[in-house]
Write a structure and sequence with these properties.
Alcohol dehydrogenase zinc-binding domain protein; 346 residues; Quinone Oxidoreductase, Chain A, domain 1; alpha/beta; 11 helices; six-stranded parallel β-sheet
C-alpha cells in the first residue's frame, strides 16, 4: 500500500512515497478508506526522530484523517460499512487505571496515530472502534480531517488544564498554527477576553476573524512579557497558551496574573527553559503541561464542531500526489491553519 512518509529519519530531503503492508482490522477494530488526511507539527518531529520513541520504518505520516468505513473487525456491530467518519488520533490501551477512570490522555501506553503507529496519509487506516466517530454533516471530509488533533489538544489545555473561566484574560502565543487557530476560538467560546500575540502582526490581525479581542505583536524591542503586561492593564494574564517553549515560556511566566497559568502544549522552539521561581511562588502562579485529550473532552469539542460553534481553519489543500509539497508548506511564512491532502485513490 502506498503512503507518504519516510524510510530514514532526517530533514525534508527524506520525505517521499513509501510502501507498507495493507492493514486488516482485528477484533474490535475498523478499517477506514481515507478521503482526506492532515499534517501537524508532530509529523515534523516524527520525521526527525523523537528520543525514546521507536518508530516503525518505512513510516507513513499524518495523525488526522477522515473517510469511509471499509471493513469491520470481529465484534464491531454498531457501525456500518460505507459510513462517513473521522478519526480520533489518540489511542490509549483502554485497560489501565487512568483509562478506567476516564482519563485516557494519562494512559502510560498512550499512542498517537502517525507517531507510534502508521499514519493517515495513505489509502487505509486501521484503528480501534472507540476512535471512530461519525463525521458531522456540516463538515466536509477536508474540514473533518483538519479538526481532531488540534481541537482536542486546545480544548483540554484551556478548558481542563488551564481552567479558563468567563472574564479571564487569555493570551494565545502564536497565530498561524493549527492548534493556535483552534485555541483562539475555544478561549472565546469559554468566555475569555482573548489576545493573540505573534511576531507577525499581520497574522495576529487575521486572528480577529476567529474571535480574538486583541492582536498583539512582539519582538526584541517589544518583549512578549511587556506587551502582555500592557495589554492586561498591568494586572497580568490569567491563562497563557504557549506551544513555542524555550523562546517564549520564560516571558509568558513574567506576564502572569496572581494565580495565573501558563499551559504548555509543545516546544517547537526548544524544550529547555530557565524560569525565575520567585515569580511563580510570589504570584502563586503555575506552569502546566497538557497534551491531547480524554474521550469525554474529545466528544465535547466534537459536539461544538458539529454545531458550528467551532470551525476548522484550513490553510491549504493538496492532492495526494503533491503530499511532499504540502508537507513543505509548514515553512511558509504566511501559514495560517491546517494543511490537508485529499486522496484521489479513493
Amino acid at each position: 500500500m502506498r503512503g507518504f512518509g519516510f524510510s530514514e529519519h532526517g530533514g525534508l530531503d527524506r520525505i517521499g512515497f513509501v510502501e507498507i503492508p495493507e492493514p486488516t482490522p482485528g477484533p474490535g477494530e475498523v478499517r477506514i478508506r481515507i478521503r482526506a488526511a492532515a499534517f501537524n507539527r508532530l509529523d515534523r518531529f516524527t520525521l526527525e526522530g523523537i528520543p525514546g520513541v521507536p518508530i516503525e520504518r518505512p513510516h507513513v505520516l499524518g495523525s488526522d484523517g477522515s473517510g469511509i468505513v471499509d471493513a469491520l473487525g470481529a465484534g464491531v456491530d454498531d457501525l456500518a460499512v460505507g459510513s462517513s467518519v473521522l478519526i480520533n488520533p489518540g489511542i490509549p490501551d483502554g485497560t489501565c487505571e487512568a483509562c478506567r477512570a476516564g482519563e485516557e490522555a494519562l494512559c502510560r501506553a498512550y499512542r498517537i496515530l502517525g507517531e507510534h503507529t502508521q499514519g493517515s496519509a495513505t489509502t487505509f487506516v486501521v484503528v480501534p472502534r472507540r476512535n471512530v466517530h461519525p463525521k458531522p454533516e456540516r463538515l466536509s471530509f477536508t474540514d473533518a480531517a483538519a479538526a481532531p488533533l488540534v481541537f482536542q489538544t486546545a480544548w483540554r489545555a484551556l478548558a481542563t488544564v488551564g481552567g479558563v473561566r468567563p472574564g479571564d484574560r487569555v493570551a494565545i502565543i502564536g497565530a498561524g498554527g493549527g492548534t493556535t487557530t483552534a485555541a483562539i476560538q475555544i478561549a472565546k467560546l469559554l468566555g475569555g477576553n482573548v489576545a493573540v500575540a505573534s511576531r507577525t502582526l499581520a497574522k495576529a490581525e487575521r486572528a480577529r476573524a476567529l474571535g480574538a479581542d486583541a492582536a498583539l505583536s512582539f519582538d526584541a524591542d517589544h518583549p512578549l512579557d511587556k506587551v502582555l503586561w500592557q495589554w492586561s492593564e498591568k494586572r497580568g494574564v490569567d491563562v497563557i497558551f504557549d506551544s513555542n517553549g524555550a523562546a517564549t515560556v520564560p516571558r509568558s511566566v513574567r506576564a502572569l496574573a496572581r494565580g495565573g497559568r501558563v499551559v504548555v502544549i509543545g516546544a517547537t522552539a526548544g524544550p529547555t527553559v530557565e524560569v525565575d521561581l520567585r515569580t511563580l511562588f510570589w504570584r502563586q502562579a503555575s506552569i502546566r503541561g497538557s497534551t491531547m485529550a480524554n474521550f469525554r473532552e474529545f466528544n465535547d469539542v466534537l459536539g461544538h464542531l458539529a454545531s458550528g460553534r467551532l470551525k476548522p481553519v484550513v490553510d491549504s489543500v493538496f492532492p495526494f500526489e503533491q503530499a511532499p509539497e504540502a508537507f513543505r508548506r509548514f515553512d511558509g511564512a504566511d501559514l495560517f491553519g491546517k494543511i490537508v491532502v485529499e486522496n484521489p485513490q479513493t
